[in-house]
């Protein structure tokens, strides 16, 4: 009986294996070059998402845009709150003025009532009747 050969002679298998080894060594080299905390260097197609644009740059732009929008929103909110506080203070001042006028008018009305009563008493005492 013949022993079957352990080697399989396929024409492209050896070259594909060599390419696989070289590719694995390249990936290992990329992992060794990267610092511990940063992500490994990826192919350009993986970093761009296939669109040709760098996603890290767009992420930074998105963060900056968010930050600027957040700051502008805070400034506008602060301006609106300041305006509302200003209106509340102005309204309180106007109400104080109106209440002081009402108090002074109430005093004037009381004085007029007293004068009217005095005139009526004087007229009744003098004997002039309607």
The fraction of residues assigned to DSSP E strands is under 5%
Give the C-alpha Rg.
Answer: 47 Å
Distance between the termini: 156 Å
The helix-and-strand class reads: mainly alpha
What's the helix-strand series?
HHH
Largest sheet: none
Query: How much helix, percentage-wise, in residues?
Result: over 70%
Number of helices: 3
Looking at the structure, what is the overall shape? rod-shaped
What is the mean predicted local confidence, pLDDT? Answer: 78
Count every beta strand, where a strand is a DSSP E run of 2 or more residues: 0
Low-confidence stretches are 4-8, 44-48
Describe the fold and architecture.
- The chain has 130 residues and is mostly helical.
- It has helices at residues 13-33, 44-48, 55-126.
- The radius of gyration is 47 Å and the shape is rod-shaped.
- The model is unreliable at 4-8 and 44-48 (pLDDT under 50).
- This is LSME1 protein.
- Keywords: Membrane, Transmembrane, Transmembrane helix.
Which features would summarize this protein structure in a list?
130 residues, mainly alpha
Secondary structure topology:
Elements: H1 13-33, H2 44-48, H3 55-126
InterPro entries: DUF4577 (IPR028099)
Region (Disordered): 36-55
Organism: Lophotis ruficrista
In short:
It comes from Lophotis ruficrista. The protein has helices at 13-33, 44-48, 55-126.
